[in-house]
Specification:
There is one protein chain. With about 550 residues, this protein is an all-alpha fold. It has a domain of about 70 residues. It is built from 13 helices and 2 strands, in the order H-H-H-H-H-H-H-E-H-H-E-H-H-H-H. Strands 1-2 form a two-stranded parallel ribbon. Helix 5 crosses helix 7. This is Transmembrane channel-like protein. It is found in: Membrane. Belongs to the TMC family. Its main location: membrane.
Length: about 550
């Protein structure tokens, strides 16, 4: 995000937009034909996007009707978000009742309904959002950003509703563990205590592990829920891909010739490949895996298998059943939008894990943290037992609150200073762009004024040339009339030599085109005509 922000200029590039895209978009250092094809396709998409953007800005809509539809759309979307969160919380609390009764007493749907409901909501919720977004009549790029934000809110709300319900189940399991601790103490007191009248040596007690009561491990419970969610999402993805893409394409292909309307270009048409939605699903899935890895260490391996299989299956679906999206707009001109979503997903994923490590006690008889008050107690214990003493002292000094708090304060002040500095630089950049724009407008107006003056001068010159042409035409007509009158009077008329003025006195005097021949100003020679210097005349 910082790299993208440093590359962006912070101003508008609306001046000569098409000229910049046409003449400066190509990279002349490309030497690979495939890279050249990709660059050509990218430049084509950018130019199409600019043309569509220009077309969208010229639309005229009724503001009141648009505002009414946008309020209705936001109300429907908020209702869907609230309803999905409440539905997940309701089925999770219902699953807690099933847990108290024993999962073996219930059927398959009741054991897995939480994961199935979450998968169905995350699959069909974005489709409802896409249909409702047509009421808002936003710009395609703004509509896409709103769509991503709403889908992200749906995913995050569903995940946190699921986590809140899981926390309630964990608390119920921890209460069972406390009861199990008491029962285990009573069992051990009756199992190992015995009195003898004299000293004797006997064989140790042999206890079958199946006879020892074991408490419910809440880490295993949470890990199983995450594994179920991953498997349910995978199966739901495959089923939706087969039904919504493959069977839909088959029906459209074979029924299009005998249907009342064109199925390919109208409803239902072929399925569109939503690149931004698939990318958001991938980011959310990655955050869920990071969250569940603490409770189920095999979860990344299962997710890797899922990604490998889904990549090939979705590639087959894209090549055979999907068509490109009609909207050519990108989600953003830079990748900061997806980077911001990924940053929020990382925060959402790490927050429950940190809460578990810091505040919740681990199970007393299972897992690597059994017997500890908190999970983070493993760190100082490992430093004390497995590392040198000086390293433990150094880390204890570094983790001292008297040193950590001033360091955090220094970091906050440094970040604030850098933020103010970058804001100042960006404002200076905007001011310079405004000055350049004002100067270009001034030069443009000056060039327009000079062009106007030149046009006026040319019009004046044309007018003067036309006037002179009319005067010349009138003089020619007068000379022709004079010639005809002289012929009619019987007088001979000889034209004047070319070096003599052809007109009389006044404004009609015209000069001959041939210059007058005169002798150069030099003394006359004593030689005779044809005599060469140094030779006699005869």
């Amino acid at each position: 995000m910082a790299h993208n922000t440093s590359e962006s200029s912070g101003g508008d590039d609306t001046n000569f937009n098409y000229s910049w895209k046409i003449f400066t978009s190509w990279d002349y250092l490309i030497g690979n034909p495939e890279t050249a094809d990709n660059k050509f396709a990218s430049n084509t998409t950018n130019i199409k996007e600019a043309l569509a953007d220009e077309k969208e800005t010229q639309k005229v809509t009724n503001f009141r009707v648009t505002l009414l539809f946008r309020l209705l759309a936001n109300f429907l979307i908020i209702s869907i978000l609230a309803g999905s969160g409440y539905l997940i919380y309701y089925v999770a609390r219902r699953s807690e009742n099933f847990l108290r009764d024993g999962m073996n007493k219930h059927n398959w749907w009741e054991r897995n309904e939480v994961n199935i409901v979450m998968s169905l909501l995350t699959t069909f919720g974005p489709m409802f959002f896409e249909a409702i977004s047509h009421l808002e009549n936003y710009h395609p790029r703004i509509s896409l950003c709103w769509q991503l934000g709403r889908v992200f809110a749906l995913y995050a709300g569903n995940l946190y509703s699921f986590l809140i319900a899981i926390v309630d189940q964990v608390r119920f399991t921890m209460a069972e563990e406390e009861e199990m601790k008491v029962n285990l103490t009573i069992w051990q007191s009756h199992m190992y205590n015995r009195s003898t009248a004299e000293n004797s040596t006997g064989s140790p007690f042999r206890v079958d592990p199946a006879d020892v009561p074991r408490g419910p491990c809440w880490e295993t419970l949470v890990g199983q829920e995450f594994v179920r969610m991953l498997i349910t999402d995978t199966l739901t993805f495959y089923i939706v891909l087969l039904i919504n893409d493959f069977f839909r394409a088959v029906v459209i292909r074979f029924l299009n010739h005998c249907w009342c309307w064109d199925l390919e270009y109208s409803f239902p048409c072929y399925s569109l490949f939503d690149l931004s939605g698939n990318l958001l699903t991938l980011i959310f899935n990655q955050g869920m895996i990071c969250m569940g890895t603490l409770y189920a260490p095999c979860l990344p391996a299962l997710n890797l298998i899922r990604l490998q299989t889904s990549m090939y299956i979705q590639a087959w679906g894209v090549m055979c059943c999907n068509i490109p999206h009609t909207r050519i707009f990108k989600a953003s001109y830079s990748s900061n939008l997806y980077m911001a979503i990924l940053l929020v997903i990382i925060f959402i994923s790490t927050l429950p894990v940190i809460f578990t490590v810091v505040s919740m006690p681990p199970s007393f008889d299972c897992g690597p943290f059994s017997g500890k008050q908190h999970m983070y107690d493993v760190i100082p214990e490992s430093l004390e037992m497995d590392f040198p003493i000086w390293l433990g002292k150094a880390l204890s000094y570094i983790s001292n609150p008297g040193l950590v708090l001033p360091f955090l304060l220094f970091l906050i002040l440094t970040i604030y200073y850098l933020y103010v500095t970058s804001k100042t630089y960006k404002q200076a950049n905007l001011d310079l762009k405004k000055k350049l724009k004002a100067q270009s407008e001034e030069n443009r107006s000056r060039s327009k004024l000079e062009a106007k003056k030149m046009d006026e001068y040319l019009e004046k010159a044309k007018h003067m040339a036309a006037t002179e042409q009319q005067d010349k035409q009138g003089n020619n007509n007068l000379s022709l009339k004079a010639r005809d009158s002289s012929k009619s009077s019987g007088q001979s008329y000889l034209p004047p030599p070319p070096h003599i003025y052809s007109g009389g006195r006044g404004s009609g005097l015209k000069y001959s085109r041939r210059p007058t021949y005169t002798r150069p100003p030099a003394p006359r020679s004593h030689l005779m005509h044809g005599q060469l210097p140094g030779f006699p005349p005869y």
